[in-house]
Amino acid sequence: MRVCLTSIVISVFILLAAANDEFKEEIFLKPLPPTHLYSFFQFITLVNNENSFEHAHLAPRSLSEVISRFHVEELHLTLTEGQWRHHKWGYPVLDAAPGAELYAWFSEDVEDVDTQWRQLSATLSGLFCASLNFIDGFNTITPRMALWPSGAFKQNQNVTSQLRYASLPREIVCTENLTPWKKLLPCESIRGFSSLLNSRMIHNTNYHSIGVHFRRMCSNKECSQTHLEVKQTVSLVFDYKILKSVDWSLRKLFGQGLPGGCPLASSSQIYVDITSNDTQPFKLTPQPDKIITSQRGGSDTKLALYNIKPDGVMMNLAAKYGNTDKIIVPQPPPLHFNRYVLGYGKEFGGIVTEVTNNYRSPISIVLLENAPWWLPIQLSTLRINGEAESKLVLSQFFSPGRCRQKPYHLELLLRLPARSTTTITMDFEFVFLKWQEYPPDANHGFYIGSALISVNLPTARNYTSLPLTGSTYDSVVNASQPWYPAVFRTNGAMVSLPTPDFSMPYNVICLACTVVALAFGPLHNICTKELGLKPTAKKLTWKQRLLGIFKKKQD
Ligand SMILES: *[C@@H]1O[C@H](CO)[C@@H](O)[C@H](O)[C@H]1NC(C)=O
Ligand SMILES: *[C@@H]1O[C@H](CO)[C@@H](O)[C@H](O)[C@H]1NC(C)=O
Ligand SMILES: *[C@@H]1O[C@H](CO)[C@@H](O)[C@H](O)[C@H]1NC(C)=O
Ligand SMILES: *[C@@H]1O[C@H](CO)[C@@H](O)[C@H](O)[C@H]1NC(C)=O
């Protein structure tokens, strides 16, 4: 009886602790006129336990064990295929670099951050079936200015020294990454919004990115208490050309309707950005539950809101456009950028990052350039708008790379004048790699990761964010703040390094094989055939000889 009572008490305690957990799911749909549609999924699990995931029943156990084991304070992992086109699509809710990108802050009590970081990336590599185990000292940097934690941190903690950042631009994202990602959700892909995410439709998009974000958040205004947040995100950009029509619906986008919300979720909501209805009108069926207008930074965003019940009733949200003859040319957002490689031949080259400020006042940005060790960039060749000394640079940090050990890392705090384009150029030399260091398809080229641009936008034009959902005390998304923090990634670039002629061994093998094949026959003959003596001809009479000649002729 006593045992039973104790276990009941314990389970009540566990239930009470677990009752504090919260899970929310959201879909955000935004038409990007004239040709694309953006959809963003976020699944947020809040663990209202100050320090650990113990007794948390909704948080993904495999991930939470990794986080506790390596003393991670904040973690961001994204796996992305395709390139977000900022000048055409505006800004995404969360930007991500092409390929795999991982950055994390470790807790203060971690002393050997580098070892911990390598172990963390190797563990996550197993968890997400991605090649994160290739992260090592030679492709890891510690950004000084570009990245700041989005969660709660102790006031006087040195956040820089506990941060590590790495990106793998070559990583290819596919189904085998999505499946373990879905397993982390409380409803997996059986119920709720995640049941829409089937890989057949996702990999049919122009851009897709899956992410896992973990951080610690303040529970009250003074931040004396904190809780943990795990956010799983998916960004997809659909092309109307692939959909074969401008009208879209959940069934068309994901191959099936929505079978209700996840029963474990405290809220399941769909937001549709209907701001573009002013330029390209469309009708939504069914009617939204509510229309929200959010005003920030001088621009209005109208959102249609749907509350989805976990009743298992199939729902299909559809948009039907009226007249679509009008040609819409989207205005570029306040800040946009481009990156490309200069030079010809196989000796010297240059890498150029162009940043355009369209806004009416100057904007300060932090630009982080990160070049692999096999692309030595020299600080002395840094030119801004063609000048070596520029007044635009307010502060800079450079850490030279070391062969096979450390990448090149440059950070610039720049003040971009109003309505201007700034070009940042650096020269590099091509190096020869060792022959085992070339990838199997060496002539394909080598990827250079994206540059990071960290900015506090002075305007909310083309800025995309969801209404406050995660927590009331989210320091990053505060609608009444006069600036909008964002970190963008430029497009990546590709260089073709001097590559040895890998076909030579093949040619040699072919030639050698031919020679052997040709020589084999005669040699075999000689070695295996028995040599016999011909019987010597008897002395013939002249008659027999004559007959012999005739016989030959008859033959
Ligand atoms: C933080 O750590 C970095 C790297 O270890 C160091 O360069 C920097 O001076 C530290 N900052 C402070 C405020 O202690
Ligand atoms: C778009 O605007 C039209 C009228 O201008 C209105 O009838 C329609 O309901 C609007 N669509 C949405 C999704 O609000
Ligand atoms: C950015 O926003 C402005 C006004 O809000 C709009 O005219 C423009 O088309 C948008 N640009 C993009 C690329 O979304
Ligand atoms: C949001 O920003 C405004 C203006 O800076 C500030 O007054 C307000 O306290 C902030 N809200 C939160 C919840 O931090």
Automatic annotation (TrEMBL):
What are the transmembrane regions? none
Record's InterPro entries?
PIG-T
Q: Does the entry feature the keyword Signal, yes or no?
A: yes
Keywords in UniProt for this one? Signal
| Signal peptide start and end residues | 1-19
Query: Which PANTHER family does the entry link to?
Result: GPI TRANSAMIDASE COMPONENT PIG-T, GPI TRANSAMIDASE COMPONENT PIG-T-RELATED
What's the protein here called? Answer: GPI transamidase component PIG-T
